Inverse folding.
């Protein structure tokens, strides 16, 4: 088994940047989900900025992202625009440039982080293309957000703590939904592809599942074997001394973003709607029995290690069901106050 593809999503819900190498941090892959699009706060939202998600706004799939050769700028391009086609923002904004910028509170699944406004040029670009008042925010504060327990147990609103193992620091997230990483496999990808009509099977469907790490399992694993992965070891192909530990956390329940037509920015035709096609037999997370599962939420360490396409992946531990903060021995624990 080897890493086949690596993705980072600099702006939550926009198209990914596919890379050949990515650095692990204690908040996921470097640059992942560090930006978010929001609607400005109102009295109805209690002063919180509401994040704009591809789950409900399929137009976000029309925005492509790339990183320039110097790794200093993030280039965003609208695939169907005839004007305002391109926007460039810093990949890592300098603190000085953000000194006088407005800051908003953003809540995602019940845990909050500050977002620093990137200015009117970015806001006007997204407002023009989305047809709604939109602001682009960069994660502020200490650059991280607590992991929401509500994803792992419905109506469980306490934040949770996770760690890869007892030797590594607890992890947090930026503007990701619920975990630092999402892992998928080629065997499951192929099974999902075969559910589509024959004319649609050439589509790069894995981009609709939005993983960070896509593992080529060859003939070693059956589709959805990752449901039972508990821990992985990833051996660097360039540095024999580097070994990355991965803790699998939770069978990832999927949302309506699977039905986005990324080429048109609309809902995809019914016979290609992966949400419904998978719902027939992939409702395998007992905590969310009405939603299909594809992939595993995970975390990895140590921070600073580099994942590369081609790195060898081994399953070192299996589990027979998704863990929760209530499971005995779970790596998901209610967050203790500082």
């Amino acid at each position: 088994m080897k890493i086949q593809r690596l993705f980072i999503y600099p702006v939550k819900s926009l198209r990914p940047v596919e890379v050949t190498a990515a650095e692990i941090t204690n908040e996921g892959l470097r640059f992942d989900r560090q930006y978010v699009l929001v609607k400005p706060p109102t009295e109805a939202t209690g002063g919180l900025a509401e994040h704009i998600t591809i789950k409900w706004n399929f137009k976000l799939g029309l925005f492509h992202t790339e990183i320039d050769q110097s790794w200093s700028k993030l280039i965003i391009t609208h695939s169907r625009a005839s004007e305002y086609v391109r926007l460039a923002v810093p990949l890592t904004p300098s603190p000085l440039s953000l000194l006088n910028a407005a800051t908003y509170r953003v809540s995602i699944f019940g845990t909050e982080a500050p977002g620093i406004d990137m200015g009117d040029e970015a806001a006007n670009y997204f407002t023009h293309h989305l047809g709604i008042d939109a602001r682009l925010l960069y994660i502020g504060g200490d650059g991280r957000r607590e992991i929401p327990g509500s994803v792992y147990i419905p109506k469980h609103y306490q934040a949770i703590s996770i760690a890869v193992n007892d030797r590594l620091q607890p992890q947090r997230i930026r503007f990701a939904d619920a975990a630092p990483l999402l892992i998928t496999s080629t065997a499951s990808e192929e099974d999902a592809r075969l559910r589509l009509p024959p004319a649609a099977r050439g589509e790069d469907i894995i981009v609709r599942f939005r993983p960070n790490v896509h593992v080529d399992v060859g003939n070693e694993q059956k589709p959805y074997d990752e449901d039972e992965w508990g821990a992985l070891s990833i051996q660097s192909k360039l540095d024999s001394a580097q070994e990355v530990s991965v803790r699998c956390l939770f069978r990832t329940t999927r949302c309506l973003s699977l039905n986005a037509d990324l080429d048109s920015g609309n809902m995809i035709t019914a016979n290609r709607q992966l949400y419904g096609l998978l719902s027939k037999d992939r409702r395998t997370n007992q905590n969310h029995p009405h939603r299909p599962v594809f992939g595993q939420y995970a975390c990895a360490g140590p921070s600073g290690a580099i994942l590369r396409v081609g790195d060898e992946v081994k399953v070192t531990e299996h589990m027979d069901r998704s863990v929760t903060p209530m499971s005995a021995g779970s790596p998901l624990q209610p967050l203790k106050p500082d």
In short: The chain has a mean pLDDT of 94. The two ends are 40 Å apart (CA to CA). Helices lie at 120-130, 186-194, 206-209, 274-279.
